[in-house]
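Support request from a user on the community tier.

User writes: "When I paste my structure tokens into the form, the page sometimes reloads and wipes my input. The last time it worked, I copied everything first. Here is what I submitted, just in case something in the input itself triggers the reload:"
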């Protein structure tokens, strides 16, 4: 743990590993114009067997389950709840107030915006981008409408896809690489293109129940 910084009161479960130059329990530094909550944060909590890799940052107020892997230079912001056996790839970022279900895999350099929900067994490919503000920082109306995507159990999102604010990706749906998702995706369908459109159903042999 050369140069690692574990802040006071951080709760580390049995067998947690914090690698070189990682930071755990950091308090956020917010811009005066930030819309994020300024309520006091409890200590970060890391479950049994979790690994925080080199240069990664886990903020105060985050709660990580057992056997979570936070990759090199990845970041988990405040008030995030991450289930057991989640993998967060190198350089990826999970913004504040996001929930991620067990067994989800988020690959390198993906961006999970604030106020998102990812259920269990979700797969996020490299460089996926999610968004939560249709007004892009203008008008006060945006505050009440700000919401990230909801990605249901078993859904898969291909490399470089963009998910627009508030969309729902249905259970076991498949979003093709580079797709721009502007509306809800029905369960067990495959969508591709810009804007994303349904092209077929997900084959039965790809469903979680048939793995």
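"...and here is what came back when it finally went through:"
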């Amino acid at each position: 743990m050369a140069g690692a910084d574990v802040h006071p009161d951080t709760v580390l479960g049995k067998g947690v590993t914090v690698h070189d130059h990682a930071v755990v329990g950091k308090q956020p530094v917010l811009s005066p114009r930030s819309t994020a909550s300024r309520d006091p944060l409890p200590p970060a909590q890391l479950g049994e067997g979790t690994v925080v890799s080199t240069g990664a940052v886990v903020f105060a107020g985050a709660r990580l389950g057992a056997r979570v892997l936070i990759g090199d230079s990845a970041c988990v912001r405040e008030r995030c709840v991450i289930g057991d056996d989640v993998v967060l790839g190198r350089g990826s970022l999970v913004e504040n107030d996001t929930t991620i279900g067990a067994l989800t895999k988020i690959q390198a350099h993906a961006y999970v915006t604030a106020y998102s929900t990812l259920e269990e067994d979700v797969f996020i490919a490299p460089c996926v981008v999610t968004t939560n503000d249709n007004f892009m920082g203008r008008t006060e109306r945006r505050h009440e409408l700000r919401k990230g995507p909801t990605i249901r159990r078993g859904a898969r999102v291909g490399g470089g896809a963009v998910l627009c604010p508030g969309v729902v990706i249905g259970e076991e749906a498949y979003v093709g690489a580079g797709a721009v998702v502007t509306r809800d995706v029905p369960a067990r369908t495959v969508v591709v293109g810009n804007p994303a459109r349904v092209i077929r159903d997900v084959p039965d042999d790809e469903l979680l129940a048939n793995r």
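Agent notes: The reload is a front-end session timeout and is unrelated to the input. The first strand starts at residue 5 and ends at 6. The helical segments are 142-145. Escalated to web team.
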